[in-house]
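To: structure subgroup
Subject: Chain for Friday's discussion

All,

I'm putting the inputs and outputs inline so they're searchable in the archive.
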Amino acid sequence: MHANKIKMALNIKRIVDEYYEPNSQRGSLIDVYRRKVYAVYPMSEGTFYRLIEIAIGIDGYIGNGANRVERKKRKLRTDSEDKRQLRLFDDY
């Protein structure tokens, strides 16, 4: 990914960190996007969420102080855990 795109993602995250309030409709992610981020960086909602994911991947959290929310760790399933997964290259 280009350095300017990463810098833009981190700038957007900085704006979100300043205004995001997890339990408030006025400070929700979509509201922060519409009121604050879109004024500085006009983009679609999908692009906004993609850039937030990039920034969270770098920093590992969103929000600041009491509003800080840690990124949820995703558990990836392995082939052995999912019985429905096809086994194309196993020996029979």
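Points worth raising on Friday:
The radius of gyration is 18 Å.
Helices lie at 3-19, 29-40, 45-59.

D.
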